[in-house]
Write a structure and sequence with these properties.
This protein is an all-alpha fold. The chain folds into 2 domains: 14-313, Hypothetical protein af1432 (Orthogonal Bundle); 314-380, no CATH class. The chain is 60% helix and 0% strand. The protein has helices at 32-41, 44-47, 67-84, 89-98, 107-119, 127-138, 152-160, 184-207, 213-219, 221-233, 239-268, 274-279, 289-307, 313-332, 339-344, 350-359, 363-380. α8 (184-207) packs antiparallel against α11, α8 (184-207) packs across α13 (289-307) and α14 (313-332) packs across α17. Bound molecules: magnesium ion. Magnesium ion binds next to α3 and α8.
């Protein structure tokens, strides 16, 4: 409807959707995926992304990304690639906007500690599965049904964009065609997420002076190549502008490579229909081998020198402690959970209910809860 280019024969067609759990009449001006996109943008869990850690919890600059601005960047990159590959842009945009909605506070530190705590109770925490619970049950906006009542392809993409789930381990997901790969629209998202955060985190890390120009240049070949080009073209420009030029070109190379290499793989695999995509022996969306190697190198560099670096360690440990303390607190004192969660605990394991409550929180809210409950309890004892 909104798309100006003709869809490829292997793209998802909105007319062929497997539909919604609760059937709804069509909308006169928006197709099903556009409506799903709009439902996500208007959801509370989407607005909360603004106050969830991407990399920096203690944001020393308002210029750094949070999970909302990261999400918008991923949506932008995804639309470009979807357009170039003649995929369904509405579906791709929707999947990009929803891709991080299941993240708990404090980024990956929060996710890791929640999963660890849940395992002690024989349960798990996984942000993709949590995202599905949010859109299926926790968003309460409509009188006719629970959740957002999204189309099948969006719900499938939420769980399958970044990993495969086996039907043996996850029987509850059997409706999501676990023996097939997801459409290219969903396959793209894992890569556009990586393109988005690799370049953005390098930018923020440099701005935060935690990454030095020389250090990036000597460790990240993908960056160095473009930095040299920027130096040749703009010898008199300040380093910060050369850095920006190099980063922009690096992002462009990653996007271009993903478009061209995925198109090549589609051609070589003789893929012409959506069923071909779903049943091919591996995922078709991929970088070329050389760029994939360089992307990995950039990612490893960021892990070593930013995500797991000594300067970020204190805030990571703080985040883990806050999540851990509150998890144990509500297990000990379920009567201090909000009434709606106490109600849920009648039908589900308490650990799951506490985990759901915590996972939905923003960084600010959970820090505030920690001050109010855990520290006050410590003072009383
Ligand atoms: Mg992401």
């Amino acid at each position: 409807m909104s798309q100006s280019v003709v869809l490829a024969t292997y793209a998802v067609r909105v007319e062929d959707t497997r539909g919604r759990r609760f059937p709804e009449p069509p909308h006169p001006y928006r197709n099903g995926y556009q409506r799903d996109r709009d439902r996500i943008i208007h959801a509370r869990s989407f607005r909360r992304l603004e106050n969830k850690t991407q990399v920096f919890t203690k944001r020393v600059s308002d210029h750094f990304r949070n999970r909302l601005t990261h999400t918008i960047e991923v949506a932008q990159i995804s639309r470009t690639i979807a357009g170039a590959l003649q995929l369904n842009e509405d579906l791709v945009e929707t999947l990009a906007l929803v891709h991080d909605i299941g993240h708990p506070p404090f980024g990956h530190a929060g996710e890791k500690v929640l999963d660890g705590l849940m395992r002690k109770h024989g349960l798990r925490f996984d942000h993709n599965l949590h995202a599905l619970r949010i859109v299926d049950y926790f968003e309460n906006r409509y009188a006719d049904f629970p959740g957002l009542n999204l189309t099948f392809e969006v719900r499938e993409g939420i769980i399958k964009h970044s990993r495969d789930y086996s039907a043996t381990d996850y029987p509850e997901l059997s409706e999501y065609l676990l023996d097939q790969y997801p459409p290219l629209e969903a396959q793209l998202i894992d890569h556009t997420d990586e393109i988005g955060y690799t370049t953005a985190d390098m930018d923020d890390g440099f701005e935060a002076r935690m990454l030095k120009l020389e250090q990036i240049r000597s460790n990240v070949a993908l960056f160095e190549r473009h930095f040299r080009e920027a130096e040749t073209r703009y010898p008199a420009a300040p380093n910060k502008l050369k850095f920006n030029e190099a980063l922009k070109r690096m992002l462009n190379e990653l996007v271009t490579d993903l478009i061209e290499n995925t198109a090549k793989r589609i051609r070589e695999a003789n893929v012409t229909t959506l069923d071909d995509v779903r049943n091919y022996r591996e995922r078709l969306a991929a970088f070329s081998p050389q760029v994939e190697r360089e992307r990995r190198e950039a990612k490893e560099f960021l892990y070593e020198n930013l995500y797991l670096s000594a300067p970020l360690r204190p805030e990571k440990l703080d985040g883990e402690r806050v999540v851990g303390d509150l998890f144990e607190y509500w297990l000990r004192r379920p009567e201090s959970l909000p009434p709606s969660y106490q109600e849920k605990a009648k039908g589900e394991p308490l650990a799951r209910v506490v985990c759901d409550y915590i996972a939905g929180m923003t960084d600010n809210f959970i820090i505030d809860q920690h001050k109010k409950l855990v520290r006050r309890e410590a003072v009383r004892n």
